[in-house]
Design goal:
4-stranded antiparallel sheet, single chain, alpha+beta, 6 strands, 184 residues, 4 helices
Length: 184
């Protein structure tokens, strides 16, 4: 029974971790290296993350600087950024690439805020799905006489408590991201 509950908890934690990673890629008017995480550059035939090919640093509040270790990859990195949908035009000076993050309009902030809520809701659905799957497994174990009825009730309560905790965590993370977006 403990392994079933532990598996559900791990699945819930992975959902929260994925949400945090998704939010890191949100462009909130500040320079944030997280916006580059999903971009892959063709590096000798291998799709490679930018942070494995270059030093990425925040020069100022709204400027991200990318310094490739291999200068011949500068144009490939620039093209990959342009092809992505981050909405920032890279500036290549022959040595580094600068990404200047524009200030967000109020309309764009509201759009991003809606996206934050949408991703949070999807994460909650995923957590509840993990809870449902776990409870179904526990019921099957009880039916097969592997656990008692009391164990089933205890297990259901434990899974519900964990679900409530993760839902609360998701809401807190979403609220913080929304505040960040609206305050910039």
């Amino acid at each position: 029974m403990d392994t079933v509950i532990k598996a559900a908890q791990e699945r819930m934690q992975k959902t929260v971790d994925a949400l945090i990673k998704e939010y890191a890629g949100f462009r909130a008017g500040r320079a944030n290296a997280g916006v580059l995480d999903k971009i892959r550059v063709d590096y000798y035939g291998t799709p490679t993350p930018i942070n494995q090919m270059a030093a990425v640093s925040v020069a100022e509040a709204r400027i991200l600087v990318i310094q490739p270790w291999d200068k011949s990859t500068l144009n490939s990195i620039e093209k990959a950024i342009q092809a992505s949908n981050i909405g920032i035009n890279p500036q290549n000076d022959g040595v580094t690439i600068r990404l200047i993050f524009p200030q967000l309009t109020q309309e764009r902030r509201k759009e991003l805020s809606k996206d934050v809520r949408k991703f949070a809701e999807e994460a909650k659905v995923s957590v509840r799905s993990a809870r449902r799957d776990c409870i179904e497994k526990l019921k099957k174990m009880e039916k097969a006489s592997e656990i008692t009825e009391d164990d089933l009730k205890d297990g259901e309560k434990e899974v519900q408590d964990k679900t409530d905790k993760f839902i609360k965590d998701i809401e807190k993370i979403a609220d913080e991201k929304e505040k960040e977006i609206m305050s910039i």
